[in-house]
Design brief:
The chain is of the alpha+beta class and 89 residues long. The chain has 2 helices and 4 strands. A 4-stranded antiparallel β-sheet has the order 1-2-4-3, covered by helices on one side. The radius of gyration is 12 Å and the shape is globular.
Length: 89
């Protein structure tokens, strides 16, 4: 997997609109993600996903939303995928 360089400051600013960021981990080819953010979503997850995905699409990036313990996790992957958002309970 060839991960191209991205403007991580710009990407982090986009994610920070929707997530109160507590920590950031940069991925690599082995981890198969660009960046992982952990924190707390500022708005409803469905709204956050739709808006974040629209802003990242021109950069050829897709966000994936997860939960780890009590924290929200946003994982950014290279490429644009049409994913269906499932509301977690």
């Amino acid at each position: 997997m060839n991960i191209q360089p991205y403007d991580t400051d710009n990407i982090t600013a986009i994610v920070a609109r929707f997530l109160s960021i507590e920590d950031i981990t940069h991925g690599d080819a082995k981890q198969k993600y660009l960046i992982r953010y952990r924190g707390r979503l500022r708005i409803d997850s469905a709204q956050a996903y739709d808006q974040m995905a629209a802003l990242l699409r021109p950069l050829d990036i897709t966000p994936l939303f997860r939960k780890e313990k009590q924290r929200d996790v946003v994982i950014l992957i290279h490429g644009v995928f049409n994913l269906v958002h499932r509301r977690s309970g």
